[in-house]
Amino acid sequence: MSLVQEIKELVIKGHIHTQSKYPSDLEGKPGVEETVRQAIEQKMEIATILRQGLIAGMDVVGEKFSKGEYFVPEMLFSAKAMKAGLAILRPHMSDKETLTVGKVIIGTVQGDMHDIGKNLVGMMLEGAGFEVIDMGINTSPEKFLEAAQQHPGAIVGMSALLTITMEKMKDVVDLLKSKGSRNKVMIGGAPVTQNFASQIGADGYASDASQAVMKAKELLGIKQ
């Protein structure tokens, strides 16, 4: 197995480094950190390590999550392994290279204090190579607008867990449009549906973290 394939498999299994106790059968064995360093030492192209190793591994994790073969704990370990690999790659990037395939602004809408779903989406997006600008919880329409103006090419992603707060998504969409924003808007959350997304003029809807990655790629014209 090639080093890049090893990196991919280690991301899928969520094995971060030698000291990691997860998964138990790999405890004491090299993880993503050690294998990425080895690949760099062997002069493997950074883009190859990133796309065919780290990102390819998270793509598989996303598929497994969508199929119900992986659950939140497995996804979290894989996301942490991916981020550990990214941290090692960054110092070796040239000025012309980039670790990101696009930007996504994410936040829970005003009045909503729930962030578990949003955080999962953020982790999956980062694992897929996106730069994530996390606005946190209780984010006002004005804050979403400010972030959109600062990052004109970014997707604006909104989350809501409550029916009463999901209505705030329309306020954000309306404000962005009134200010001439061209940022694509993606929404999700327990009470949110594709029908609601269409009603308020959002560009996309995702039912879970894995779907959010697929939709973000679709909105930015990135090949799946």
Produce the secondary structure layout.
Layout: H1 3-13, H2 32-41, H3 46-66, H4 72-89, E1 102-108, H5 116-127, E2 130-134, H6 141-150, E3 155-159, H7 163-166, H8 168-178, E4 185-188, H9 194-200, E5 204-206, H10 209-219
Helix pairs in contact: 1-2, 1-3, 1-4, 2-4, 3-4, 3-10, 4-5, 5-10, 6-8
Report on this structure:
By secondary structure, this protein is of the alpha/beta class. It has 2 domains: 3-92, Methionine synthase domain (Methyltransferase, Methionine Synthase (B12-binding Domains), Chain A, domain 1, Orthogonal Bundle), CATH 1.10.1240; 102-219, Cobalamin-binding domain (Rossmann fold, 3-Layer(aba) Sandwich). Helix content is 51%, strand content 11%. The chain is built from 10 helices and 5 strands, in the order H-H-H-H-E-H-E-H-E-H-H-E-H-E-H. It has helices at residues 3-13, 32-41, 46-66, 72-89, 116-127, 141-150, 163-166, 168-178, 194-200, 209-219; strands at residues 102-108, 130-134, 155-159, 185-188, 204-206. The chain has a 5-stranded parallel sheet, with helices on both faces. Strand 1 (102-108), helix 5 (116-127) and strand 2 form a beta-alpha-beta unit. Helix 1 (3-13) packs parallel to helix 3 and helix 1 runs antiparallel to helix 4 (72-89). The longest helix is centred in the N-terminal third of the chain and has 21 residues, at 46-66. The relative contact order is 0.12. The mean pLDDT is 92.
